[in-house]
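re: that chain from earlier
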Amino acid sequence: MAVREVLVYPDRLLKQVAAPAQTEEIEAVGRDLLDTMGSLGHCVGLAAPQLGELVRVVCVDVSEHPKAETSNGRLILANPRILEAGGSEVGREGCLSIPDLTANVRRATRIVVEHAGGTVESGGFEARCIQHELDHLDGILFLDRVESLVDDVFRRRTYASEEEPAGASSPAGGDVEPGRENASPADRIG
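^ sequence. v structure.
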């Protein structure tokens, strides 16, 4: 098991464009992404640049997340690119590489992604997560996608290590209501 440290902004590698992944890199980097995600317990996606690997590999698994109405299970996408995108919705996002903030980000609600292993169609929360992770491959962070830094960015108060008491509930399945300055561990994408 190769659990790796997740880079935190302003690490310069997070703003770099990743190179196409070679066959031998896909398995090794994919395994490290899965191991690191698994060690965090609350993470639904991670991109190779977040581990300091500037190759085009991401991992997404929303199958256990309450906001995921549909899921393709555990996805390792090498050299992915969006072929089709439709719909549009604003939703709250967080990121392991920007741990102190969340923000409202507009994303497509349905996508088709081509990758080294074929194509995958995704919708809803999973589509949001995939788009978030694919942005990392181009050096784009979720804060780069907000419409207003004043109105759409929020300071995070609750962290994964501060679990809510039994029976407590957070709004919208873990996401934050607009204007509130806290977030649950469930809204960290990657």
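The domain at 12-187 is CATH 3.90.45.10 (Peptide Deformylase).
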